[in-house]
Amino acid sequence: MKSITIKGSERESVGKKATKALRDAGMVPCVIYGGSQPVHFAAEDKAFKNLVYTPNAHTVVVDLDGKTYNAILQDIQFHPVSDRINHIDFFQLNEEKEIIMEVPVKITGTSPGVLLGGELRLNQRRLKVKALPKNLPDFVEANISELQMGNKLYVTKTIPGNFKLMHPDNTVVCQVKISRAAMKAAQEAAKAEKTAAKGKKK
């Protein structure tokens, strides 16, 4: 999985007054959990742009004045009015322990059902996977090359990797729905066939 580096500084004071001062200065207060003790730090708001405002999944290298922590984003809080980032929780990675993380679904291939006028519907845009940090995938691949009109692709049919999918086997990742246009065309074709059959009988 690709990694993003966030540069920041450890926080000496974590009180409400100090936190407000940080936010007023355009900084985001953060905490890293998962180690022997929580690590409080702050970084510029713009440092999180490529981590938060993207459909992709990333691990994070938090660089605090030369001291680094490998982590993943665990929770994020936004201001209810301005929608600015209020606070971020990170979880420190242990290379020998599996971690659960959401990653995006990547659709590959061409569906015969879509070529015939069906509508591809993505039921799951992201899936939870469990893996060692080194095996975390950038995405879960769903190949739709065999999906006919009305077919569904279940989570068990995604491309496997060195990770475990944390979903029931009957979870639908995507499906090809019969579009109104395709349904109308099928009805008209059936009607025309019926009319032709009647003409032959006469």
From TrEMBL:
<keyword id="KW-0699">rRNA-binding</keyword>
<dbReference type="Pfam" id="PF14693">
    <property type="entry name" value="Ribosomal_TL5_C"/>
</dbReference>
<feature type="domain" description="Large ribosomal subunit protein bL25 L25">
    <location>
        <begin position="6"/>
        <end position="90"/>
    </location>
</feature>
<dbReference type="InterPro" id="IPR020056">
    <property type="entry name" value="Rbsml_bL25/Gln-tRNA_synth_N"/>
</dbReference>
<comment type="subunit">
    <text>Part of the 50S ribosomal subunit; part of the 5S rRNA/L5/L18/L25 subcomplex. Contacts the 5S rRNA. Binds to the 5S rRNA independently of L5 and L18.</text>
</comment>
<dbReference type="GO" id="GO:0006412">
    <property type="term" value="P:translation"/>
</dbReference>
<dbReference type="InterPro" id="IPR020930">
    <property type="entry name" value="Ribosomal_uL5_bac-type"/>
</dbReference>
<keyword id="KW-0689">Ribosomal protein</keyword>
<dbReference type="InterPro" id="IPR020057">
    <property type="entry name" value="Ribosomal_bL25_b-dom"/>
</dbReference>
<comment type="similarity">
    <text>Belongs to the bacterial ribosomal protein bL25 family. CTC subfamily.</text>
</comment>
<comment type="function">
    <text>This is one of the proteins that binds to the 5S RNA in the ribosome where it forms part of the central protuberance.</text>
</comment>
<protein>
    <recommendedName>
        <fullName>Large ribosomal subunit protein bL25</fullName>
    </recommendedName>
</protein>
<feature type="domain" description="Large ribosomal subunit protein bL25 beta">
    <location>
        <begin position="99"/>
        <end position="179"/>
    </location>
</feature>
<dbReference type="Pfam" id="PF01386">
    <property type="entry name" value="Ribosomal_L25p"/>
</dbReference>
<dbReference type="GO" id="GO:0022625">
    <property type="term" value="C:cytosolic large ribosomal subunit"/>
</dbReference>
<dbReference type="GO" id="GO:0003735">
    <property type="term" value="F:structural constituent of ribosome"/>
</dbReference>
<keyword id="KW-0694">RNA-binding</keyword>
<dbReference type="InterPro" id="IPR011035">
    <property type="entry name" value="Ribosomal_bL25/Gln-tRNA_synth"/>
</dbReference>
<keyword id="KW-0687">Ribonucleoprotein</keyword>
<dbReference type="InterPro" id="IPR029751">
    <property type="entry name" value="Ribosomal_L25_dom"/>
</dbReference>
<dbReference type="InterPro" id="IPR001021">
    <property type="entry name" value="Ribosomal_bL25_long"/>
</dbReference>
<dbReference type="InterPro" id="IPR037121">
    <property type="entry name" value="Ribosomal_bL25_C"/>
</dbReference>
<dbReference type="GO" id="GO:0008097">
    <property type="term" value="F:5S rRNA binding"/>
</dbReference>
